[in-house]
Amino acid sequence: MIELIDVVKKYKIGIHEVIALNGVSLKIEEGEFVAIMGPSGSGKSTLLYLIGCLDKPTSGKVLIDGMDTSKLSDRELTELRRNKIGFIFQQYYLIPTLTALENVELPMVFKGLPKDRRQRRAEKLLELVGLGKKKDRKPNELSGGEQQRVAIARALANEPSILLCDEPTGNLDTKSGRIVMDIIKRLNVEQGVTVVLVTHDPSLSDYADRVIRIRDGRIVDAD
Amino acid sequence: MLIELALRNLARTKVRSVLAIIGIIIGVMAISSIGIFGESLKAVILENFKDVADEVIITPDYTHGYTSIDARTVKKIENLPYAELVIPVKSESALVEHKDRKTYVTVYGMDVKKTKELFELEKGTYKGCLMGSKVAEFFKLRLGSKITVAGKEFRVSGIIKEGARFDINPNYAVILPLRNFDRLFNKDYSMVIVKVEDIDKIEAFKEAVNKVVNRKESKVSVFEMKIIIERIKEVFGKMTLFLMAIAGVSLLVAGISILNIMLMSTIERTKEIGLMRAIGAYRETILKLFLTEALILGLVGSFIGGALSFLGGYSIDMLILKTAKYVLTPSSVLYVILGISFGILTALLSAMYPAWKASKLEPIEALRYE
């Protein structure tokens, strides 16, 4: 379960202070599919990164499975991200020198899994996203949709319970976007992975169980 | 996989990596080649003196007013323990003439049999008057040539091979059997050369001299050849280190170039670093990745440089010393190992700061970096 209690996040840009989140509280249950929607600059990505332990709140608490992330060390946060959270970004962020298979293996390398085990699992995950035949291709030999599917496979490498998606279809055409979203939905339904999706594309809200709307750092409408 | 990743990252910027490696190669080569040369130079010089290491020269103690060593003292020295061979030598500066040329040289008188122990002959026999090679050259002497020493005529019976000694310079010496010397000059001995049984017994022998000969007053001084040799070793060792330090500047430059390319690559790969941190890489993992890249550059460059430095050492030796027989000695190998170690160390030290900087990146800021 994910819980945010009165979370405030301020940034300093030069001498100006920007309040990205201004007292956000919310709960996301295990296995839920939640879409966070709002215009750009509304603070939705900041919210996602706080949930993903990539950033710490200025005040308030972020609890992941009851653990207060503000009390964890950098090393513990790294382990939390590695073992519980999978990230999918708008720009895919694949390592250009690694093949699709190796990109999927990477989180398992960081976890210290033996080579044969991580290769077997990476192959299985690439099959799952429909890229079994392209496992030896480098990112620049894959289409945008295919790269995002590799990124999904990578996000699943260490069997996370939470999948955080930051505009996953933002760089994709409608068809590829649908394929990607279908995979994410299937993971949510079939494997019970909690999905938090940040988007400003209203058509994606159909995939979600619940939509949280955010504006100027505050939740304006949660249904 | 970290090594694999490091290799591919280096391959991504091939030209840069190759240039960095070349820098290390040059640095290691410079250090090791000069080390080899210094060692060879030392060996060449020491080889000239390898026979004299176990020798001791006994001279009159001039500070106490003695200008020669009398026969009784020589007898005492001959009976001392540890003395394997005792060669008493008389000497005098005298006019030597041949045909229309004349010059002053130092004329030595010593036992004919013992002459063999000190000098090698280029030609002729030890019996009779021996000429140093430079003297022979000056007078254009051949075996059997007639020369006049201090007004008395001798026939050249042998010419001494060119060489170097601290006590008697063989190239400029004229050596007469003691009997002939005594007929020309009425003198006591000017020095006694003693070969000690074993190099470790030199101290004990010196003590014996002081006890027996210098018991009442200091008649003679004892001078060990070993000291000179040790000084030579010391001086050349220092000189080699100094030259290597100068060569080390090239390695420093190579190190700075590695620092530079690593800094560039941390900036270029900021987003990748952020991603790796996001999906579960520890700070140390990032640190290790960058250090591994530098280590690979260092290892490749250093080993190639190390191998090439034999070639470098060979070239310098041939150019300056005209011999390459000291290139492949254990001490040369030591300098190559030293060069390789410095190469690897330089690469690692240079990568420390960029690697540390990369590992300190906050994942969120790295991912958002534009």
Q: Could you characterize what this model shows?
A:
By secondary structure, chain A is α/β, with parallel strands linked by helices. Chain A has a single domain, classed as P-loop containing nucleotide triphosphate hydrolases (Rossmann fold), CATH 3.40.50.300. Chain A has helices spanning 44-51, 74-84, 100-111, 115-128, 144-155, 174-191; strands at residues 2-13, 16-28, 33-37, 59-64, 67-68, 85-88, 162-166, 194-199, 210-215, 218-222. In chain A, strand 4 and strand 5 (67-68) form a beta hairpin. In chain A, 47% of the residues are buried. Chain B is an alpha+beta fold. Chain B folds into two domains: 2-48 and 230-368, no CATH class; 67-218, no CATH class. Chain B is 58% helix and 18% strand. A six-stranded mixed beta barrel of chain B has the order 2-3-8-5-7-6, surrounded by four helices. The A-B interface holds A 49, 52, 54-55, 74-75, 78-79, 81-83, 87, 89, 93, 95-98, 102, 105-107, 109-111, 115, 154-155, 157-158 and B 1-2, 4-5, 8-9, 11-12, 271-272, 274-283, 285, 362-364, 367.
CATH class of chain A: Alpha Beta
| Average pLDDT over all residues of chain A | 92
Described by the principal axes of the CA atoms, the overall outline of chain A is: globular
Question: What is the structural class of chain A?
Answer: alpha/beta
Helical residues, percent of chain A: 25-40%
Cα-atom radius of gyration of chain B: 33 Å
Order of helices and strands of chain A: EEEHEEHEHHHEHEEE
Portion in beta strands of chain B: 15-25%
What's a quick, concise take on this entry?
With about 220 residues, chain A is α/β, with parallel strands linked by helices.
What distinguishing features does this structure have?
heterodimer, A: 223 residues, alpha/beta, Rossmann fold, 6-stranded mixed beta sheet, 4-stranded antiparallel beta sheet, B: 370 residues, alpha+beta, 2 domains, 6-stranded mixed beta barrel, 10 strands, elongated
